[in-house]
Amino acid sequence: MAQRIVAGVLFLALASLPALSAAARAFFVFGDSLVDNGNNNFLATTANFASAGIGILNDTGFQFANIIRITKQLQYFEQYQQRLSSVVGQPAAKRLVNDALVLITLGGNDFVNNYYLVPYSLRSRQFSLPDYVRYLISEYKKILTRLYELGSRRVLVTGVGPLGCVPAELGLRSLTGRCDPELQRVPDLYNPQMIALLGDLNAQFGADVFVAVNAYKMHMDFITNPQSFGFVTSKIACCGQGPYNGIGLCTILSNLCPNRDIYAFWDAFHPTERANRIIVSQFMTGTNEYMNPMNLSSILAMDTRT
Fold first, then answer.
1. Which tens digit of pLDDT belongs to each residue from 91-147?
2. Crossing angle (nearest 10°) for helices 129-149 and 181-205
3. The pTM is what?
4. Among 96, 160, 199, 306, which residue carries the largest CB count within 10 Å?
5. Could you tell me which of 101, 105, 103, 102 has the C-alpha nearest to residue 34?
6. How far apart, in whole angstroms, are the C-alpha atoms of residue 126 and residue 116?
7. Which residues are the active-site residues?
């Protein structure tokens, strides 16, 4: 349970930000364990559809039981709107959804829990990595288009982070503590194509609906220079076992660091609460290098005026 709670801290940190207008604004979250704040543990959560282990593709995470795949998350979102309409009326429900902020975090599991899950995986035999990335982008277009059809008009879309640098992959693939070069190919191939997709969709819809979040750079800032952010390490997880505490899940039997605030990673894949708050600060005020075409402060200020 601790893994899921900490994994959802990015969602909680964003949700706790002070509003820039007097009116309340809905915040809907879709995606994987980076933003799942308890759904996979059947916890009562607030305005969040995310589920650990899922990906863009429905065959991603096949080894996990009872995960809420993105197609099902979107179905739940549609059902939510129907129930909301029955309470407040269709016009008010439509306005609430149109005015809402949406965060979607997908993609990483399609690599670590699919393409690279085992040697000679089905997807790696079916596609070269560049072709697989193109296939993912084509499938992601359908998901984002469906979000738009369901009324979303302000959508933050995170790119893939530095997959080769997380403790899990260091533990499996690195003898020296250096990021795995094969997995580091992923963000180099995937993120530019995702940004291009968002630009195409914004042009198609005639507005800046989709905002690209540079999760790779947000993470690499403290991975490459952890001490400048107050961390003692960005390689060893606070909770885990094996090399870099990167093998398996965080359980009651795992090694546990004495102070999670000085570790960049909580477990094999997920940043600590403090690292997530650093990431969220870039959501709010980051330059176009982090948030394109605008950061969240600019979005909130602009939407307040309209």
1. 999 999 999 999 999 999 999 999 999 999 999 999 999 999 999 999 999 999 999
2. 40
3. 0.91
4. 160
5. 105
6. 13
7. 33, 267, 270
